[in-house]
Amino acid sequence: MKFYVTTPIYYPSGKFHIGTAYTTVLADSMKRLHALKGEDAYMLTGTDEHGQKIEEKAKEQGKTPKQYVDDMAAYAKELWKKMKIDYDDFIRTTDDRHVKVVQKIFDKFMEQGDIYKGEYEGWYCVPCESYFTETQLVDGKCPDCGRKVKLMKEEAYFFNMKKYENRLLKYYEENPDFIKPEFRKNEMINNFIKPGLEDLCVTRTTFDWGIKVLKDPKHVIYVWVDALTNYLTALGYGTDNDELFKKYWPADLQIVGKDIARFHLIYWPIFLMALDLSLPKTILVHNWVTMKDGKMSKSKGNVIYPEQLIERYGLDSVRYFLLREMPVSQDAIFSPESFVERYNFDLCNDLSNLLNRTVSMVNKYFEGNIPEYNGTPNEVDKEFEEFSSKQIDLFEEKIGNLEIANALQEIWTLISRTNKYIDETMPWSLAKEDNKEKLKSVMYHLIENLRKIAILIKPFMNDTSENILRQIGIEDETLIKWKTLKEYDKLKGIKVIEKGQPIFMRLNTEEEIEYIKNLMKK
Ligand code: MSP
Known about the structure:
The protein contains 19 helices and 15 strands. Helix 13 (336-366) packs across helix 19. Strand 1, helix 1 and strand 2 (40-47) form a beta-alpha-beta unit. Strands 3-2-1-12-13-7 form a six-stranded parallel beta sheet, sandwiched between helices. Strands 5-4-6-8 form a four-stranded antiparallel beta sheet. The chain has a domain at 314-484: Orthogonal Bundle (Isoleucyl-tRNA Synthetase, Domain 1), CATH 1.10.730. The protein is α/β, with parallel strands linked by helices. The structure holds 5'-O-[(L-methionyl)-sulphamoyl]adenosine. The site of 5'-O-[(L-methionyl)-sulphamoyl]adenosine has 19 residues, from helix 1, helix 7 and strand 12.
């Protein structure tokens, strides 16, 4: 089975803050999950390098647009490397492979009569590179970013969206998995389609930095036809070398933030219909990472960059925090308090301590040798096995529905239950009573569940997972397979490491909150 997952291509208009990294961490985790399940998983990310905003940014820095985007693409790749993003391809909209195909697609749309020439007058938001109608403005300002808009008029090409309106609505209705979560579909219908779907302006003549329309080169193809088609051009669509396209299209999962939901849920499927291509199976729209005082912004002095947190607290705590804190229907809030709390409670108290206690008990009671499964679990162990199996099912259910934070929560419920199992079975008493059989079974179940936990967290926190497996002596690849999650009795002749090392050390709450607050002020 194949699994093609994409992130949006990023505007390289500045450093990426912690919120921006969310989409990519999530896409990476989904890729890793499907790969771990044995699928042929392929992940695409990249940069969206054209437009007026980029032209302006380059000028500010005294660079040509090309120099500017080259530097920014290098910066993005460096950041994703630090965050261990396992992408298979990084597309840049200035790549030749993209430019040529976008021009072909535009020509095709013109020939089919999907694109026509007209004149556009509208309220234009420069930073968002979007025109809005009077009714779409909020208090006379840009509905997406809240900034000032100006009235502009120009000759432009338009995409006839109305032609596809009914087909789109029918598609929504017949494909309940197309949009997740479901309420985003209703938002599209009620806010944009029912009030009358507007045709989309797809070219500009007011700037140069973009892909030229071949048949009318004073027009530059403006953002969405250029940007959205990256998901196809990266696979070689429209070229002689289109094996990847044949193999991976349609996308299985496209992940986007809520600010670009409209473009991905309305225009993108319509472009695909116009190209006579299949639509992605699922588009997941996620919310934003915000701060207690609203959106992250340099002027508010509340911005935090992923590198800053990774440097001090390690990559996996950042990945965990992002994925765990994002609810399905509201924004996640980043605060130094919540970050330190998650670190101390979930990672240190629950996970790290469980590993530590277990490794030291196996060393103490069995000289590091993991006892073998006895095949006849007693009542307490059986109940624990059933609980663990139920948690795995709940994880699968939640992740299948793309409720990422809830899925992680199910893993942590298993971690807590495993800690509780130690308190319940009291291995120290069993040792005192010399109840070897029971003690063996407890140790076996603890290690088995740590193995399961390590597999479950692997897509999200690969380093931590590997660290756990190393400490419990599991090197055999066949024991790290997803399909072994519910198996017992496979651990034979394995030794834990002699001296366990904490994978997360307890943080001094006050000191670290202060530390992060200072980072944000800088
Ligand atoms: N270039 C467009 C996408 C074109 S896709 C064909 C774009 N780029 S972006 O750099 O502005 O945003 C990239 C991703 O980061 C988007 O999914 C966006 O929603 C996401 N985020 C930006 N700020 C965010 C938060 N504060 N929180 C979570 N995600 C955020 O849009």
